[in-house]
Design brief:
This is Putative methylated-DNA--protein-cysteine methyltransferase. The chain is α+β, with helices and mostly antiparallel strands and 167 residues long. It is 31% helix and 15% strand. It has two domains: 3-60, Double Stranded RNA Binding Domain; 77-158, Winged helix-like DNA-binding domain superfamily/Winged helix DNA-binding domain (Arc Repressor Mutant, subunit A, Orthogonal Bundle). The longest helix has 14 residues, at 47-60.
């Protein structure tokens, strides 16, 4: 059984789904759309409660590392291995798709890493926004519809990877 909680953030409303073992999914929801169908507050001490607290602290600028467990069930072995390798890239740092391919030890080519990032069920907690193309930002499948790159840019600015825009 899964629990859901919504969190309003500077990059839109995110919906966190968690089970007994950890966070299963983070997604974006347009404000005003269908009801979440859950209780108002997560069960104190649950993985969902911990995730909402840690994500709130991250967006407030007071958290740089996440300790909430994540569930990566249903992913291929190579996808899981790439995502676990990405967890080694700390706050305020970035890697290219090619560097992450090498770091993961999977033998996947750099081009395939983008697809793995798109399959990441827990963006922000596993920071796929820190993976950049060799010649620019690359893509980002998170964020509200049509705002993926703006969302990625905000996260990179928030962590100091990119300088803030003046206007």
């Amino acid at each position: 059984m899964s629990e859901l909680a919504a969190l309003d953030t500077p990059i839109g409303r995110i919906v966190v789904t968690a089970g007994a073992e950890g966070v299963r999914r983070i997604s974006w929801r347009v404000v005003g759309r269908t009801s979440l169908g859950h209780s108002e507050a997560p069960v104190p001490g649950s993985a969902l409660d911990q995730a909402v607290t840690e994500l709130s602290e991250y967006f407030a600028g007071t958290r740089r590392e996440f300790s909430v467990p994540v569930e990566l069930d249903g992913l291929t072995t190579s996808t899981r291995q790439v995502l676990l390798a990405l967890q080694q890239v700390p706050y305020g740092s970035s890697v290219t798709y090619g560097e992450l391919a090498e770091l993961s030890g999977t033998g996947l080519p750099a081009r395939a890493i983008g697809s793995v990032m798109g399959a990441n069920p827990v963006p922000i907690l596993i920071a796929c926004h820190r993976v950049l193309a060799g010649d620019g930002l690359g893509g980002y499948s998170g964020g509200l519809p049509g705002q993926g790159l703006e969302t990625k840019r905000w996260l990179l600015e928030h962590e100091g990877i990119l300088p803030p825009r003046l206007l």
